[in-house]
């Protein structure tokens, strides 16, 4: 990995900056980071699991961050010991590849309503459109092509990447990161069926997003019908997630890609929801719940723990046989119950 503004440290210097112990030649230079497979003689890597020990032994990296109990052969590589090697590696990236902001400016092609309130050190990219009564706090970065409708409020140190749309009256907290293509505050899928036709329900609520939230590319968060849709502090949303109207997501919950959350579902704090899971509307999920990939949540979860559903992958012919047998489960259950009574 290269960067024109990258810093350079010795092995000892990195370890000292991270507050970690090291073993080996502390004077060897580290210029960047890389995977074990692609590393060169000036790169730093990390090893989270001994499953990758063979890759480490064949890697050209100069140093590697390893678990504190690591005692395997690593050749001539310098070792830096950490309780959480992945976390230490991320911190090392910030040291070696610091992020540099461009000078704040408002591009000449951006269209701002005269009533927009701008804080200090704000940057607005090309072809942005910002509506009436919008408030943008200090140190906000808004990339090209963003649309921010009337009445939105954006907290300090927040970053909107290219092509983000904030519909009217959306509120973002501080230090929020929104990736390209996100739409926040569009109407939800609220309809009433009457005499063979669908009548649209007006959506009068908005969306409120807490501090230190990250929202992945092309994720959509619908506005509430009456009350607001609410995303708590520290929530992390992956790409291509659908959050329907009036959903509430508790603090520090992480949700992986392609999850669909139906209207008025309430998800607790510190939950982990894996990819492609589906959550039905009007149910509640307790704090500290983990839902595994492609699970379908059809009723409320009242206790913390790990929950799964669905059928794991199997050979196609076996799956067809098992699928045919599912139809007989009720009959088999009745037979077993009858036999138990006779016994």
Task: Note down, in words, how this protein is organized.
With 343 residues, the chain is of the alpha/beta class. It folds into three domains: 9-96, Udp-n-acetylmuramoylalanyl-d-glutamate--2,6- Diaminopimelate Ligase, Chain: A, domain 1, CATH 3.40.1390; 111-307, Hexapeptide repeat proteins (UDP N-Acetylglucosamine Acyltransferase, domain 1, 3 Solenoid); 317-343. It is flat and about 75 Å long. The N and C termini lie far apart (70 Å). The model has no long low-confidence stretch (mean pLDDT 95).
CATH topology of the largest domain: UDP N-Acetylglucosamine Acyltransferase, domain 1
How many DSSP helices?
5
State the major sheet: 10 strands, parallel
Tell me the strand percentage band: 25-35%
CATH architectural group of the largest domain: 3 Solenoid
Summarize the amount of helix as a percent range.
10-25%
Based on the model shown, name its key terms:
UDP N-Acetylglucosamine Acyltransferase, domain 1, 5 helices, 10-stranded parallel sheet, 343 residues, alpha/beta, Udp-n-acetylmuramoylalanyl-d-glutamate--2,6- Diaminopimelate Ligase, Chain: A, domain 1, 3 domains, 28% strand
């Amino acid at each position: 990995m290269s960067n024109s503004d990258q810093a350079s440290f010795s092995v000892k210097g990195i370890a000292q900056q991270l507050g970690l112990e090291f073993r080996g030649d502390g004077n060897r230079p580290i210029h960047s980071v890389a995977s074990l497979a692609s590393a060169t003689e000036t790169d730093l890597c990390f090893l989270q699991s001994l499953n990758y020990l063979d890759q480490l032994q064949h890697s050209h990296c100069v140093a590697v961050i390893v678990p504190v109990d690591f005692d395997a052969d690593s050749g001539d590589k310098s070792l830096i010991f950490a309780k959480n090697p992945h976390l230490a590696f991320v911190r090392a990236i910030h040291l070696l590849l610091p992020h540099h902001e461009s000078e704040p400016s408002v591009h000449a092609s951006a269209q701002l309503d005269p009533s927009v309130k701008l804080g200090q050190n704000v940057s607005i990219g090309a072809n942005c459109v910002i509506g009436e009564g919008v408030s943008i706090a200090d140190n906000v970065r808004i990339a090209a092509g963003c649309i921010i409708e009337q009445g939105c409020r954006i907290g300090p140190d927040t970053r909107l990447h290219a092509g983000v749309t904030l519909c009217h009256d959306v509120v973002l907290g501080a230090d929020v990161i929104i990736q390209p293509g996100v739409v926040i505050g569009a109407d939800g899928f609220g309809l009433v069926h009457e005499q063979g036709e669908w009548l649209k329900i007006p959506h009068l609520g908005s969306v409120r997003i807490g501090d230190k939230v990250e929202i992945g590319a092309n994720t959509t968060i619908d506005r509430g019908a009456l009350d607001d849709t609410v995303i708590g502090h520290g929530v992390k949303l992956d790409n291509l997630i659908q959050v329907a109207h009036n959903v509430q997501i508790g603090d520090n919950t992480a949700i992986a890609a392609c999850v669909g959350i139906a209207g008025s579902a309430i998800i607790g704090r510190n939950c982990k929801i894996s990819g492609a899971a589906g959550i039905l509307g009007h149910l509640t999920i307790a704090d500290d719940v983990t839902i595994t990939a492609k699970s379908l949540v059809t009723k409320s979860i009242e206790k913390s723990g790990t929950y799964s559903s669905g059928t794991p992958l199997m050979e196609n012919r076996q799956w067809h046989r098992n699928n045919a047998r599912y139809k007989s489960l009720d009959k088999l259950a009745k037979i077993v119950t009858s036999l138990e009574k006779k016994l």
